[in-house]
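Quick log. Single chain, no ligands specified.
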Amino acid sequence: MTATDYQAPTNAYSDPNVTPPLAQAIPLGFQHVLAMFASNVTPSIIVAGAAGLAFGGPEQVYLIQMAMLFAGIATLFQTVGIGPIGARLPIMQGTSFAFVGVLAGVAATQGLGVALTACIIGGAIHFSLGSVIGKIRWLFPPLVTGLVILAIGLYLIPVAIKYAAGGAADFQMAAESFGSLKHWSVALTVVIVSLVLKFFTKGITSNAAILIGLLTGYLLAFIVGMVNFNAVGNASWVTGIQLLPYGFEFSLGAVIAVTLVSVVSAIETVGDASATAKAGAGRDATDEEIAGATYADGLGTAIAAFFGGLPNTSFSQNVGIVGMTGVMSRHVVTIGGLVLIACGLVPKIGAVIASMPLPVLGGGVIVMFGMVAAAGLNVLSEVNLNRRNMVIIAISLAVGLGLNLVPTAVQYLPGVVKTLMTSAVAPTALCAIVLNLVLPEEEAA
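-> predicted structure:
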């Protein structure tokens, strides 16, 4: 059964509190999971690699489990809610790509303890934004948010290419085979299958195109002898959750960088909440729904970090599913959240994901990261590209990406400031916000 088999009239399921029959609700819940599953676990794999964790090892498996478990828990915060927490809309939460650049840099230089501590504090600050989010939205017009999203995608694209080519020494892979035809054959298989399914099929196969592409690449990698299942055999069936698995280590620079990205993530969640209400019910999101969505975002991030999970955010691709099916039921997405929780509690599932060779993952993230950059361009398309705004775009990207590409340019700055200035996302956001506030608007001709 596909989504197109049971599209309902908008007025039938436009109420978030109405649930379709289980024969429809359960497949729709699984479809929400399929649409976001690959994107949800990828950030944990990247940050684990940057932190120097053994590829496919038990620590990486644990981080993948936490990504699934707390994406599910954060989704329940949104759909079920606790008091003012949660939009009580069909919003699917997942591990955010926006934080990957900052967290990979912090994990590589200062360790996962510092990175996760910053996420705990950043999540708490993110949570507090729920009470003021409506008042500070003016600081983040499309010019600023589009630039930040574009910077995230551009920063991550080199990582995608490195993975597709087979990784490198700093990502726990043998550098001798880097760029081999075998690696690129697997990566390009993922890309081609994903594109074919996305644009030439409909329903679940289209929405889960990247996931199916990854599975196809995984199969090819297994056939050519690139997959090692030793970790899967050694993994248990039931997980033990650890509180502060890497300790609590405070770094002001890391906290500032994560907090800046958290603010941008909060603005994105506001957009997703608004888009969900418009797509599923044809109305604007209420102030309570926007505040509740922000509270759930921050709480999900903070709690996940206590147990080794990375920051959560709303997933825009799932908004598209709501619009496509016309099913606004929050209980459908609750089913998806419960599926993720079940996956997160079974280490063997995490071990299977961790056994995925880097070229397979690389093929998937070429598409994913490229789409992040494209999403930023889509937001910027709303902006009047006059001389003022072009200057803001030029300087913000030049400073943000330039310092990230040449970190030695600020090697004499204090550690806290250096971490902030070389994180790509943070300096891009700072430049865009300041220049947008300082430079006068151009008068219309």
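Residues 13-437 form one domain.
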